[in-house]
Amino acid sequence: MKTNFFLLAGIFLSLSAQADWLNFRGPNGSGFIEGNKNLSTELSEKTTAWSVDLPGRGLGSPIVIGDKVIVTAASGPDQKELHVICYSAADGSKIWERKAWATGRTMTNKKTNVAAPTPASDGTHVYALFSSNDLLAFDLDGNPKWMRGLMLDYPNASNSLGMASSPIAVDGTLVSQIENDSQSLALGIDTATGTNKWKMDRHKGSNWTSPTTLKLGDQTIVALQSNKGIHGLVPSTGSQFFHFNKGASGTPSSVASGGKIYVPSNGLTAIVPDEKGGDPAVLWNESAQGPGTASPIFIDGKIYTINRAGVLTAANAETGDRIWRIRLKGPFSSSPVAAENGHLYIFSEKGIGQVIDITGAEGKVVSEIELNDTILATPSISGDALYIRSDKKLWKFAK
Amino acid sequence: MLFGNQRARKGELSSPARFVSFALMKRTASTIVAILFSASASFAELPDSFADNIAAIQAIGSEGAGNKEATAAWQAIAKADGEAILPLLQAMEAASPVSKNMLRSAVEVISENELAAGKKLPVDSLGTFVLNTSGSPQARRFAFDLLSQVDSAGARKLVPGFINDPAVSLRREAVTGVMIAGKAQLEKDKDAAAKLYREALNAARDVDQIDEITKTLRELGQEVNLPKHFGFLMDWKLIGPFDNSERAGYDTVFPPENEIKLDATYDGKGTAKVKWVAFTSADEYGMIDFNKPFTSMKEVVGYAHTEFEAAEAGPAELRLGCKNAWKIWFNGELIFARDEYHRGARIDQYILPIRLSKGTNTILVKACQNETDESWTVQWEFQLRICDSTGTAILATNRKKAVVAPPAKKK
Questions:
Q1: Is B371 on the interface with A (CB under 8 A)?
Q2: Is the Cβ–Cβ distance between B212 and B366 less than 8 Å?
Q3: Which ipTM value was assigned to this complex?
Q4: Which chain B residues contact residue A204 at CB under 8 A?
Q5: Domain B230-387 CATH (choose: 3.30.930.10, 2.60.120.380, 2.130.10.10, 3.30.460.80)
Q6: If we measure between CA atoms, which residue out of A75, A28, A25 comes closest to residue A54?
Q7: pLDDT of residue B31
Q8: pLDDT score recorded for residue A277
Q9: Is the minimum CB–CB distance between B251 and chain A shorter than 8 Å?
């Protein structure tokens, strides 16, 4: 009986670990999650499992931890009311909500919002960062673990257009890029205590990109992108592991896969960091494949980008050679996501969800849905379901 | 009926103040906590460690220090029952912004647990707390929301009394009510509508409400003096251009940072000789535009100087909107500086606490223009006002009579 219990528990943990979508663009910040082969390729009323009203706007994605979906929002005349809300993945019922007063400046461009960053989790806690640089840690039952007001600590760490970089939790360290024109920095925060493990001055300049992670040998490295390029760091210490110094975009983030990083740099540049550190080698560069706002995604040997005109391009990830391209219904602030079902999912700013079959010689849009609300957030995938938040609602789609 | 005589006059408590058991303070709680508790109700049922735990939460420091102890304290506090709600709200008064959020989450959890257990929240105490205008504005608003949650109709009855409340978010509710009443009169009695909208304007502190009220008042043929309502400083002496090539001017100390001699002439950018010129803003939102006297320029630094005659000494806020890099000195002391260019500006973008001296106070603003040539980087300007913590204008005794300004174009 005991054996069976642990076997079942092990299976459950394995499944839930496999299913979790813990941060912006899911596993390693890649946009791609293994499994989820039964994810619906149809977005329709029929596949709408549930939708719930949100208490405020936000651009951050929902994250999914086991049977909980957590999303942030900001409300009030000056977006000073911050929300962290946990919903049941099963039926969308609210499990808990915590509110906080913004302690930093809440000014943003009207298009964006104080709840622009996606929260991060390590599977046991959720770390919610806001554009006001409030950073709130809760356990999965909504009990606070620690709280920080980063603009109180670093008074010029803000961007009047709004901050949007999403943190990522790696091996007990929450890596956060608090980068801007003035007091620009990156932090490695102890997830247990909320104190700094390290603090690093960063290039001064607006930067809305988010960290990605990759395995190099036995090490997990976190890659921080900025206008200057990519710094690969050891998450626990912040020590530099590699540096790509050819510049990069401040909006779409890089994606890493198979020991390579595909960087929005001079179009799109594939780099190969050495396991021993040092400057990465450039595998290829394609100036015509520069992404717009959406970040690139790597799936099964191909790299996909969406340019400012809403054209989705599939390219050979080893050579950068274009394979096909199709025009989607844009414009896009959201980034595409995918699972192991041969389809790509993307939502336009106008609220049009599109599913693209990427298994054939050409990409093909196989399903569309109009959600009739502004969508600037990137979807999330977990447990054979897709989650997307619009300005007003959180939606779940599943078979 | 919620709180009996909760329509009491502003600042009064609706029920007699009760006092906390001093047993609560026998422990090693901070003096501040003790002071706060001395004005609260009796909480003899709470454990002796309660005040210590509140102090631990209040002790969260910079860069995350103290969070570990605060979390442990929070876990103990969150197990308390509804009796803990009021002291937690009171503890917000002496809490840092971060600690205040930690306390807030404790109240959220306790309230949820009480309601889930079928118990009632302490509505009388909450009502008293809301009506005590000397309390923390955020805590009072939070208490009001708790009340609204359990007795929406009762809470709404409090709203008209918030019309001059120091808690701006509560005041906003009352202003909204007056605006609705004014709107209802628009088609029936324009004079009555104008009177109501004027009442709303006098109370309004949020820019969106002020704009909407102003628009309606003007449609009703009423005059509105926005610079005076906000307290924008309109009259300045400007000097420039100094050099900001490669943005080096931000850190360069030009003569106005060392001396204010309004009749002096200095070497400016290139071969220019620069001297102070008088400038009065004609903008409703108090924009001080360096491009007007100096023409549109790039890679330059300008300074603006003014004197503010205060009727009395006291705390105040200097509120700035600026999309250029800037520094501000108040009475000769550098109080903040920021090297961000053209990421946007708005009223009250930066709120800087100051202490006014009775009589003459000096303000010096350094505004830096960068090298970029996009159409949205032309602006070389700022707007500045002095007000109290509610956003209520503090007007200088040497303020000139209002200039008739054109309808607003920018904020």
A1: no
A2: no
A3: 0.93
A4: 339
A5: 2.60.120.380
A6: A75
A7: 34
A8: 87
A9: no
